[in-house]
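Example record used in the benchmark description.
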Amino acid sequence: MKNTESQLRSYFAFEKELWAEVRNVELRLNELKSHENRPVLKRGGGMSPDNHRAINPSVIHDGEKFTMWYTGMHLDKTSTFKDYRTLKHFMCVAYSNDGVSWQKPNLKRNISKIEKSKNALFSGGLLGGVDYLPELGKYAMALSYANGRKKEGGQTTFSLITSDNGIDWEIKHIPAITHEHFETCTGPKKINGCYWVIGQGISPHFHLPNGEKCGRSAFGFYSHDLKIWKLYPYPLFHYPPEIEFLRKNQNLGFQTHLGFTAWNRGRIHLGMLGQFWPGGFSQNVRFTLGLIYSHDGLNWYEPFPKTPILSADENSWFHNVIQGNSFYQTNNETWFWFSGGDNQGNTWEANCDIGLATIRRDGFAYFASVETGKSYIVTKAILLEKSDEAIYLNVNASKYFPLKVKVMDKYFEPLNAEFSLSKSGVMEKCAIDLKKIKDQTKEIRLCFEWEGDSSENRLYMFNLGPDTN
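Model output (structure tokens):
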């Protein structure tokens, strides 16, 4: 894909606000699948810093190689699952040329008296996310850790730390917030002009604006300067706590887990939402991920409520999905790295490795026909921008069941611009010149239409933007 693709505006089938008319079609979720049904980065053995868990992967591709930062959890002779404070945490790094095969470098650092700490950067804390901030010329990390107050109960906070090279970090355990027990999942991410660190807030440390309990919910702290962080007062996303949860305090009820991972796609933001079935601490707890989206970064919606887009089945190498932090686009696929846990639920005994989930590029959901005959969907009016020159489709189509694209004005009047697509692809260009359309109107509707028993025809999404040819 050419660089101009970053200027494209993406419109997805699952955006319910986008569609003005829908006939004889059904919106369906398309699930992510684990690459080759195996972990791509396994926890280490012996006295490795990640001999118990490799979790919270955050991946950046610099144009040449992939770098993964992740949290390694270590067990030694002094560790006991009855006291989680005896479990040791290390920030680790790995490299890959293809995003699938990973190598753990030997950094030759002696950290916390562990002999085989070859790929550990430093000890202590949980990774909440890494991003490269070009405006600073630095890598930035949200680092979660206990604030050290002498009290029982939740006391997790975070600091923002930076690095020039992603290896040597300026570690300062100065809490960025005063709130107690906030567990980070993503950040710092720039969304709509300010930076966000998103994670999990738990009752009673967090609550709804009216004072009611929120259970485990996704909250966010925002900053304009990366120094002063303020809590956005409403949950960015939450499932209303069930009666059983309110009575028994976090042991029952479907809840969010560790907030969500945010992906800035320009006009829309996508998220992978952690899900808890049920909330609490036991071997029976199940973790999955759900799809959410937002247009303003403040109000997030789940197009398929309480329905996992990534989960384990009886044949999976993992039993639970414990979040991730990074997306990546290949020519034909969307990738997401995640932590996969074994069958020990939400307990300290659970082992974890890192997997790679894949899906058709931007193919999170699609429209498909449900009956024979004419099927069509029509968008609401879309305001064209100066850079809009072409339409690109992510579709399944064939010469027997072509997909027809028609352009109308905002009053549903045809504009004499049609195109019939008879092949499948993730970025199929329509032979419709939007530059000429803009001479007639600044607002358009797109109608997608097909006929016959075309159950294999699918519309996943479309893009508007510059002509990339």
